[in-house]
Automatic annotation (TrEMBL):
<dbReference type="InterPro" id="IPR007344">
    <property type="entry name" value="GrpB/CoaE"/>
</dbReference>
<dbReference type="InterPro" id="IPR043519">
    <property type="entry name" value="NT_sf"/>
</dbReference>
<dbReference type="Pfam" id="PF04229">
    <property type="entry name" value="GrpB"/>
</dbReference>
<protein>
    <submittedName>
        <fullName>GrpB family protein</fullName>
    </submittedName>
</protein>
Amino acid sequence: MRKIEVVPYDALWPLLFDIEVEKLLGVLSHEILAIYHIGSTSVDGLYAKPVIDIMPVVRNISRIDRFTSGMEPLGYEGKGENGIVGRRFFMKGGDDRTHHVHIFEVGSPHIKRHLAFRDYLRQHPRTAEHYSSLKLDLAAHFPDDMDAYIDGKNRFVQETEQKALAWYRQKGSSQG
């Protein structure tokens, strides 16, 4: 059973991301167009479950399935789309997860969604603080119930994501 642990931001998380990127490039290098650190561990100061979320962007998502066996020696378990159409999801560490890899094809709306949410939290510290508090409260109330923890974050995430996407579009148009 996975215990929900939310911890203070760790300055090592960006380094752990960089280390894992090098390993992933060894398997997927010819497919990857870009690779991003997403999720709570990518936002300085944000409390998070200590799981590094990595988002490679690839030319053709259907070609990624052939790399599942190459991901296994790195400790990854392939989960297919895992609930998001057009994604290939890999997790590392079993119940003691350390990394999630969310692979999307260039042009997927999920790429902008993840980057907008990350960048919005980076630029809006009060919103990030509120998110930290929410996650700490949920982890305290539901330490052994991942579904309840996720459900508890859902409204905040959806509302913030909508604000983030609008902010992202406005930011992009103001840069001309």
